[in-house]
Amino acid sequence: MSGRVVVKFGGADLSTPANVKKAARMVLELPYEERVVVVSAMGKMTDELVSLTAQLGEVDDSCYAEIVSIGERLSARVLCTSLKTQGAKAEFIDPADSSWPIITDSSFRNAKVDFELTKRMVQDFLVPRLKRSIVVVCGFLGKNSDGKITTLGRGGSDTTALLLGNCLEAEEVILVKETNGILSADPKSVPSACPINKMDIHEMFDLAYGGARVIKPEALKYKLPDQKLRIVSFNSNKLAEGGTEIVGSFNANSAELFSHEGLSAINVICEVNASNLQRVLAILNGKPVYGVSSGKNSVTVFTVKSEIIEVINELHNMNGVKALSFKEGVAMIQAVHPSFIDLPGAVSKISTALYEAGINILEVTTSKATVNVFIEENKLRSAMEAIGEVL
């Protein structure tokens, strides 16, 4: 197979000499002509370095980045050496090099990438190296315009891998983890958790941001539409197959907007508790639910309007319901973008745009990178245009 691949190894994958040798062998067995390897610090080295800085007192942010960068910089040298001992042509890129490609702002502990400048650096300095050798890159690290080392925040090696995969237009990005791909739950909490072969990128983002420590959610915004992304277990012994494939991509330039018409909002006056919520949703009997919100003494459920009278009557007879009402002719606009997590103000932008367009908001619900806005159905077109202009 021709083309490019970016492979990222985590700290546990490089924790022993045997693991380093195995990682090098797995890279060499990949059927790609051009290979970039992103490495995390070996074992728990980053944790140890962070702990060290904490014990020193008030450490300057720039000094903090210099100290914690040592782990990845050492890993790059060690893996590069292992590749060479196994007969490969390999070289590493260090943030101290003038050709270091990942350029960021000066937020040393959680830097933001200058994507356009990084892409130019990748094309000018990284691509030519791929013609002659396997290139090993320190994960987690960047460099500001003054040449000082920055860090991309914990889990930043995932960001490095997907960022380089984007800039290189790589055919595939492979994230090597301890787990057997993505599991349906944390096996430490749910022993019956099982592997998932394929997952949509929006599902993966919600799962990761909700606490699954498999991938840094913000890194997913760099995945290209036609690019293959897999999460593979280090224990699988080969990287060319298996694991969990993450399909789809985010729109990098603007939020994705979706809409649903023909909805009803059912408002139930009752005590808000798990038992009542369970019974309300059970009565919907398989109908799609587009949103659930609660007030001090009420629950609102947005669903399709078909057979709404039967549903209302059944809810009315439910024990604990004091009163209810429903509103038809409701539409939902769903705005999705990973930047909603990092940048405050998405809901404000949407509500301001609708206010200026003279459109009343019935309800707003949010989850992870998604904002759902419920409005009068006859205002849907105008609302989509207004929101599209600000997002």
Helix proportion range: 25-40%
* CATH class assignment of the largest domain: Alpha Beta
**How much of the residues is beta strand, in percent?**
25-35%
Just name the CATH architecture of the largest domain.
3-Layer(aba) Sandwich
Task: Explain this structure.
The chain has two domains: 244 residues, Carbamate kinase; 135 residues, VC0802-like (2-Layer Sandwich). It has twelve helices and 18 strands. The strands form four sheets. Strands 3-4-2-1-7-11-12-10 form an eight-stranded mixed sheet, with helices on both faces. It has a six-stranded antiparallel sheet with strand order 14-15-13-16-18-17. Strand 5 and strand 6 form a beta hairpin. Helix 1 packs across helix 4, helix 5 crosses helix 6 and helix 11 packs across helix 12.
Key terms:
391 residues; Carbamate kinase; VC0802-like; 2 domains; 8-stranded mixed β-sheet; 6-stranded antiparallel β-sheet
Layout of strands and helices, then pairs:
Elements: E1 4-9, H1 17-28, E2 34-39, H2 45-55, H3 61-68, H4 70-85, E3 90-93, H5 115-130, E4 134-138, E5 141-143, E6 149-151, H6 156-168, E7 172-177, E8 182-183, E9 195-196, E10 198-200, H7 201-209, E11 228-233, E12 244-247, E13 256-269, H8 274-283, E14 289-294, E15 298-304, H9 308-316, E16 323-336, H10 339-342, H11 346-356, E17 361-367, E18 370-376, H12 380-390
Parallel strand pairs: 1-2, 1-7, 2-4, 3-4, 7-11, 10-12
Antiparallel strand pairs: 5-6, 8-9, 11-12, 13-15, 13-16, 14-15, 16-18, 17-18
Helix pairs in contact: 1-4, 5-6, 11-12
